[in-house]
Amino acid sequence: MKHLLTIAGSDSSGGAGIQADLKTFAAHGTFGMSVITAVTAQNTCGVMKVQDIDPDIITAQLDAVFGDIAVDAVKIGMVSRSESIRAIAAGLRKWKPAMVVLDPVMVSKSGYDLLHPEACQTLLGELLPLATLVTPNLPEAEKICGFSITNEPEMERAGRAIVQLGARAVLVKGGHLATDRSDDYLYDGSRGIWIPGRRVSSRNTHGTGCTLSSALAADLARGLSLEEAVRAAKAYVTKAIEHGIALGHGVGPTHHFVDLYQKAGIFEP
User: Fold this and answer.
1) pLDDT by residue (tens digit) across 90-118?
2) Are the CB atoms for 207 and 213 separated by under 8 Å?
3) Strand 73-76 with 100-102, pairing
4) Which position among 6, 122, 208, 211 bears the catalytic label?
5) Active-site choice (2, 23, 75, 173)
6) Does the annotation count 210 as an active-site position?
């Protein structure tokens, strides 16, 4: 069994962050571990408050896990402060995990700033060069690149720009394009590939970015190639959205275990 580590914030409603990552790891037959960077008070309607974890506690969590357990892949999600980012980067340079998937979480669906504006450059300078794969959506890619992205040629330009910043590969997610598709652009520094995707009409999409990046980390740890992992992770997330859970009064979560529930005969549509 592969061992996966998520470095991210906790979502009290269970649909995103650490909770979504661990569910995704389990759904992929891997063992999940966590380093918590922040505690959020949130639900399906939005994020109300965030309490950042002290950087020395982040470092202690990293050392505790890596010092005892072999880590096959790391997923990084919400890291809001420069101090936290530097602590994570120092830990990764120390322990040298084979694969790192970076989801540059910046703003919640409800508009709450999850990455402090002054920390953006720290993330680009400290974590981006350590990433095997970066998975920005279009608003995140725009902040990273500094230009507007409204069509496929601009997505390709963004992919090239992000790899030039130091990442080994980037998946520019096209879900925010004003089209009836949800195609993503994968670029590894030498080759660009368009990964087709169906746009699913659903209100319940809370945690899709966390879920996709965690699925990618799990699939890469299990030995899939970069392209194979992206295709498999997109298929997993698409089905999870199709069977999203109508929870609460706002944007409900995706269904991380729909395949397992169906096989067990306990799925309730």
Assistant:
1) 999 999 999 999 999 876 665 656 777 78
2) no
3) parallel
4) 208
5) 173
6) yes
| Given 205, 234, 244, 254, the catalytic residue | 205
State the Cα–Cα distance between residues 252 and 240, nearest whole angstrom: 12
CA distance 63 to 10: 19
Q: How far apart are CA 64 and CA 58, in angstroms?
A: 10
Catalytic: 238?
Answer: no
Report the C-alpha gap between 47 and 50 in whole angstroms: 8
Question: What's the chain's Rg over C-alpha atoms?
Answer: 17
pLDDT of 268 reads: 77
Q: How far is CA 258 from the centre of its chain?
A: 20
pLDDT digits (tens, 9 = 90+) for 124-177: 999 999 999 999 999 999 999 999 999 999 999 999 999 999 999 999 998 777
Give the number of other Cβ atoms within 10 Å of residue 169's Cβ: 22
Catalytic residue, from 209, 234, 244, 252: name it: 209
- The answer to whether the CB of 241 falls within 8 A of the CB of 209 is no
